């Protein structure tokens, strides 16, 4: 498919206001400041042209010859070549100096694009998770996964929302098949609590059960009902009496619950500090 030449333009001081600043109100405009004598400029310029062609109008490439337009170079603080500046809504939002590898350039250009509806939905789901709206978060995570397949970030969020609602069996099934990804380590932190929930469904109160065992199962029961803070308090009380209770399972469940709370929750750091004081 031929690319519209409108997405690659040479601009000057006379038309910069319209071709770049005004145009950037609609789509990102990437301005390449270059000079004919600059060899890296030629290499980077050719790469930018190719990627602009691939983008098919998702951004505009505007080229400025600094020898012919020195005032533009001065206005935007261009001191070295090549310099690339990205404009959105008339403002510089990102820039770099020098020729960079294609992979980094693709990342630079990708960051200029507005988030997709699915990405916005994922952010909303994570916000609901942070706010403790577990059921609503679960619904949105499932919608994202229906659109994006096995997205690890959405899978992690889904597992957290399931565990926060006490759905241990379903969460454990997802964890057992969790894909290799950046989220994998965090996902594995959730396994101890998933196992504890499964055990809770099978647990029968034993008359011989000691106080710590009763307290442990009560904490798991509280967590399964969404009372995560009360569960954490109960588990920390147990660890004060036995740091490796149930072969370290109590400590591991605490870490699971803190992962569900998320680092955005100010109480997470407080509980982590309290756990450290108990253990060390």
From TrEMBL:
Signal peptide location: none
Keywords, sorted A to Z: Redox-active center
Source domain of life: Bacteria
Residue ranges occupied by any Thioredoxin domain in the UniProt entry: 1-114
GO function terms (MF aspect): protein-disulfide reductase activity
GO BP term (any one): response to stress
A single GO cellular-component term on record: cytoplasm
Family in the record: Belongs to the thioredoxin family.
The protein's name: Thioredoxin domain-containing protein
